[in-house]
């Protein structure tokens, strides 16, 4: 087992699947509801059965003790804040710093489209080039049109093409959007895919159904934030997702787990 495989095993369980909770929202939105006290949120997702967390370096440094039981993925780039302009992230940290901070993997956004990919594709390639030399896995996050793009950009075709491009550049696994026909994205890629959660939804059963559909189509897990910690039921939402991901639970069973905490 090489160093990269060892680190990936801190994120993906023996079944090859991972429940990753995204907690990196603070760099563009400040103290989001559910993330005001990161240490508490980390403890809650661990109680619920999370395998790893996606965090910024400030959280990783301050809450290292709380994060210790699970894997952690560090973000190498920073997006514009809610007051900023533009929709592309900038590479602001390097892999050496991630290693010093004990990261198991790093995350890089990859915007697709004019005015975006000219910056983000070279960033991804740069990160992969260095991380591969030191055995640090890279997770790419293809974002059709960039962060500010409307739903017309989040088509199955755009997601599938962006995912394949990130594979070709050399990422080790990928955080991607869900769309009906997700099987195509799985079929056209050759690294593990974890599904992002997107904006907070009020229909929890519909949300769980989309995750179940993605898992049945071949996803290797999720990387979800607001729909885990944004609804005031963090522990049980994490448990519900863990049941789908690691136990192949049906939606009704997962929904009952979620309701048990209300």
From TrEMBL:
InterPro entries: Aldolase_TIM, DeoC/FbaB/LacD_aldolase, DeoC/FbaB_aldolase, FbaB-like. It comes from the Bacteria. SMART domains: DeoC (SM01133). GO terms for molecular function: fructose-bisphosphate aldolase activity. PANTHER family: 3-HYDROXY-5-PHOSPHONOOXYPENTANE-2,4-DIONE THIOLASE, FRUCTOSE-BISPHOSPHATE ALDOLASE CLASS 1. This is Class I fructose-bisphosphate aldolase. It comes from Muricomes intestini.
């Amino acid at each position: 087992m090489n160093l990269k495989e060892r680190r990936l095993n801190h994120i993906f369980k023996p079944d090859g699947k991972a429940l990753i909770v995204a907690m990196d929202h603070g760099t563009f939105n400040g103290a989001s509801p559910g993330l005001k006290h990161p240490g508490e949120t980390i403890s809650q997702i661990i109680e619920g059965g999370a395998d790893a967390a996606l965090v910024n370096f400030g959280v990783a440094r301050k809450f290292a003790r709380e994060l210790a039981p699970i894997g952690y993925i560090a973000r190498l780039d920073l997006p514009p804040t809610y007051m900023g302009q533009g929709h592309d992230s900038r590479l602001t940290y390097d892999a050496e710093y991630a290693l010093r901070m004990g990261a198991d993997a790093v995350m890089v956004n990859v915007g697709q489209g004019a005015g975006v990919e000219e910056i983000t594709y070279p960033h991804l390639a740069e990160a992969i080039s260095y991380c591969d030399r030191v055995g640090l896995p890279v997770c790419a996050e293809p974002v059709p049109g960039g962060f500010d793009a409307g739903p017309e950009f989040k088509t199955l075709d755009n997601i599938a093409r962006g995912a394949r491009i990130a594979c070709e550049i050399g990422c080790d696994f990928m955080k991607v959007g869900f769309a009906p026909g997700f099987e195509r994205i799985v079929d056209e890629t050759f690294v593990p895919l974890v599904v992002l959660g997107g904006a907070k939804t009020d229909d929890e059963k519909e949300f769980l159904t989309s995750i179940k559909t993605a898992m049945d189509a071949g996803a290797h897990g999720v990387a979800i934030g607001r729909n885990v910690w944004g609804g005031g039921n963090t522990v049980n939402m994490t448990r519900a997702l863990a049941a789908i991901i690691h136990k192949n639970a049906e939606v009704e069973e997962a929904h009952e787990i979620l309701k048990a905490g209300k």
